[in-house]
Structure to design on (285 residues):
């Protein structure tokens, strides 16, 4: 009886089995991976920062909405037992903000796995996924069922990473408990239902925001856009050892939501002390 009681006490832990946020993982792995997606030769960043990680496939397509291309890549990192997926952000933040604001006025579209999301993000994600990224990822995961799946991206790449993580978990391509999602400067992707679906599917999901970064504020909440949880908020320059706050509400005034008007493009382009897209294009040197 005592043993059973102990087991029942332990039960809630089994269901809240999210790995807590790790600054070192974000800084040393997810940042270079997000940066690498800005490059047409991501292997250079992998060689420099993730010793032994190997690029599997990079897909780059013209997006409907931006003159920029949309891009993502898969990789295998055997020493850490990780398969990964990283998405490119936009290289023009002002353009992204303008387009996201405009697309916010358009009708949202049904996301294949529940809720409604920005048409702009949905189209970009589905194009990349159906353009070869999805089939490559599924091939890698079928060979390495015991590996953790890392998904990351900065800016627009964060939005695409969010959709990808939900899609993989919803379709049992990989169990939600074995997915680690870390994004940087991610915009709001969809409606309340999408945010709830996302949160129900994933245990380890962190949206990292830097101080007054403008992009997490678009599209605005009055357009019925809501962030998924958990936000990790750095109210500083994100130097090694700098403190951060983890907010568990989807929209939380303790984190970046406290800045509604006084926002910054510079805080968006810089994470963990580097200009993310330049860092990636320069091979993470």
């Amino acid at each position: 009886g005592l043993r059973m009681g102990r087991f029942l006490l332990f039960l809630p832990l089994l269901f809240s089995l999210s790995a807590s946020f790790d600054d070192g993982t974000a800084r040393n792995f997810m940042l270079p991976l997000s940066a690498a997606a800005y490059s047409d030769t991501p292997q250079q960043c992998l060689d420099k920062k993730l010793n032994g990680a190997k690029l599997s496939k990079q897909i780059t397509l013209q997006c409907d909405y931006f003159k920029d291309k949309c891009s993502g890549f898969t990789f295998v990192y055997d020493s850490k037992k990780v398969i990964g997926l990283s998405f490119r952000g936009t290289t023009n933040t002002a353009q992204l903000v303008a387009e996201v604001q405009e697309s916010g006025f358009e009708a949202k579209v049904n996301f294949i796995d529940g809720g409604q999301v920005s048409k702009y993000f949905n189209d970009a994600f589905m194009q990349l996924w159906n353009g070869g990224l999805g089939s490559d990822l599924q091939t890698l995961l079928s060979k390495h069922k015991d590996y953790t799946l890392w998904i990351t991206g900065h800016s627009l790449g964060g939005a695409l990473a969010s959709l990808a993580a939900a899609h993989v978990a919803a379709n049992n391509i990989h169990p939600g408990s074995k997915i680690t999602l870390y994004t940087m400067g991610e915009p709001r992707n969809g409606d309340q239902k999408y945010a709830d679906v996302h949160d129900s599917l994933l245990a380890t999901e962190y949206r990292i925001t830097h101080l007054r970064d403008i992009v997490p504020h678009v599209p605005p909440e009055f357009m019925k856009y809501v962030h998924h949880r958990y936000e990790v908020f750095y109210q500083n320059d994100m130097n090694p050892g700098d403190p951060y706050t983890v907010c568990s509400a989807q929209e939380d005034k303790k984190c970046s939501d406290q800045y509604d008007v006084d926002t910054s493009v510079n805080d968006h382009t810089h994470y963990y002390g580097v200009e993310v897209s330049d860092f990636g294009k320069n091979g993470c040197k």
